[in-house]
């Protein structure tokens, strides 16, 4: 078996997704933070930050080097790098950080708008502890104190009530975790389950374009003050009941007020119900899907 401290060619345990929250005495519940999933390999010499796709992103978050001060030995933390805006996690702000290349800009962001590492698991504590239960790993994690950039997640015992509060606050969702679960690297299991707080709205289809394998991409719009604003795209296959209806529409002028792409425009009369996580700064939908 590989030594997960020396051999970093592995990915964190992933979550299965369900639609509705639940309560179980075998599970604990945590907030799902909208950020960048990351593993932090830390010791007194420094830290290495690795994304869930095994990319080294250490240079993007120099402020997190402070984590080396709270460890005494080789340690691996699992968590989410989060940027806050108006006291809520902001995916837009963390995306800005991920795309920075200039060292001076990175340094400036680290000083003026530092991220927080929300830690929810520990996999190595001078030895590998992935075979320990989640409850045992949480007890070990409790030995590490919170500070301004290192914060442990809070655990709850009622998933349904927590999800209701998440909906009120318009947060991303919750995570349910089996208390007795070991940590499965390179795997997605139902020991860890995510329940996303999706938004839902009705939009107009203002055009389409052809993609590979008979897929078409629909351009969605929202009517405000008698103007049609582009909000995003969603792809459909011939199996979707809207497919033939869309292709049978007459090609018209562009009804969008701020959208100039070269697509097949149609009269925006066909409505569709879409679920999505949130809207970006430019009012585009994040992860749009048809609502079933």
Care to describe what's here?
With 292 residues, the protein is an alpha+beta fold. The protein folds into 2 domains: 14-196, DNA ligase/mRNA capping enzyme (D-amino Acid Aminotransferase, Chain A, domain 1), CATH 3.30.470.30; 199-290, Nucleic acid-binding proteins (OB fold (Dihydrolipoamide Acetyltransferase, E2P), Beta Barrel). Helices cover 14% and strands 36% of the residues. The protein is built from 5 helices and 17 strands. Strands 12, 13, 14, 15, 16 and 17 form a 6-stranded antiparallel β-sheet that branches. Strand 6 and strand 7 (88-89) form a beta hairpin. The chain is elongated and about 70 Å long. The two termini are 43 Å apart. The mean pLDDT is 94.
Give the N-to-C terminal Cα separation. 43 Å
Shape: elongated
CATH superfamily of the largest domain: DNA ligase/mRNA capping enzyme
**Tally of individual domains:** 2
Main beta-sheet annotation? 6 strands, antiparallel
Question: How much helical structure, as a percent, in the residues?
Answer: 10-25%
Query: Spans with pLDDT under 50 lasting ≥5 residues?
Result: none
Number of helices: 5
Instruction: State which percent range the strand residues make up.
Output: 35-45%
Rg calc: 22 Å
CATH fold group of the largest domain: D-amino Acid Aminotransferase, Chain A, domain 1
The oligomeric state is: single chain
CATH class designation of the largest domain: Alpha Beta
